[in-house]
Amino acid sequence: xxxxxxxxxxxxxxxxxxxxxxxxxxxxxxxxxxxxxPQTASRRLKSLEQQNMIRRTLIADGxxxxxxxxxxxxxxxxxxxxxxxxxxxxxxxSLEGTVESGLGEGAYYMSLPQYMQQFEQILGFAPxxxxxxxxxxxxxxxxxxxxxxxxxxxxxxxxxxxxxxxxVRCLPCMIGDIPCGIVVPGRSHYPDALVExxxxxxxxxxxxxxxxxxxxxxxxI
Length: 221
Hints:
By secondary structure, this protein is of the alpha+beta class. The protein folds into 2 domains: 4-86, Winged helix-like DNA-binding domain superfamily/Winged helix DNA-binding domain (Arc Repressor Mutant, subunit A, Orthogonal Bundle); 92-220, Elongation Factor Tu (Ef-tu), domain 3. 37% of the residues lie in helices and 30% in strands. It has helices at residues 4-18, 27-34, 38-50, 69-86, 105-110, 113-123, 138-144, 203-206, and strands at 23-25, 54-59, 62-67, 92-100, 132-136, 153-155, 158-160, 163-165, 168-175, 178-185, 194-198, 214-220. The chain has a 7-stranded antiparallel β-sheet. It has a 3-stranded antiparallel β-sheet with strand order 1-3-2. Helix 1 (4-18) packs across helix 3 and helix 2 (27-34) crosses helix 3 (38-50).
């Protein structure tokens, strides 16, 4: 089995150009790059060769080394593992919170055509005139910080009847099998522990929710 030290050495060979074909290196240079002694670097190369991870030819001042098909496969597996952790789009996680009554302002703002039309274009549904307010758990508050990595949609502000309505940010999410969106006022400080959710239906009525009940939001970033 290829160990983590061998994988690091294999990665270094690939980064030096050893995937397309042979690359010249010596144990001193490789050791310096890996932070190990030349003797340890030499043992790593022998280990990789014995595992058929690399091909190498000894020459006067060092060796010509290339990553084999087996080595490339190991690197691809390593890449897949990291992609599942840090790969951007497609990473799913949950935010847990309890239902909390708001001030009723969501119903007014969600009834404004200028907002509704933009939300429908972004989320694929016309939002129900109202929002579901959730107070996140302590664990979810920490997890919520990951939303800064997400590609939030921008809902443009506008003027109507002498009033100015500000920009809003929106992020698609799910509650069960109901498509929803997290909405955040674009210009104001928004408490990390609170989130407002819009949906094509009245979530309190649809899910029979009362204050204090727990709801789980599924977010993909």
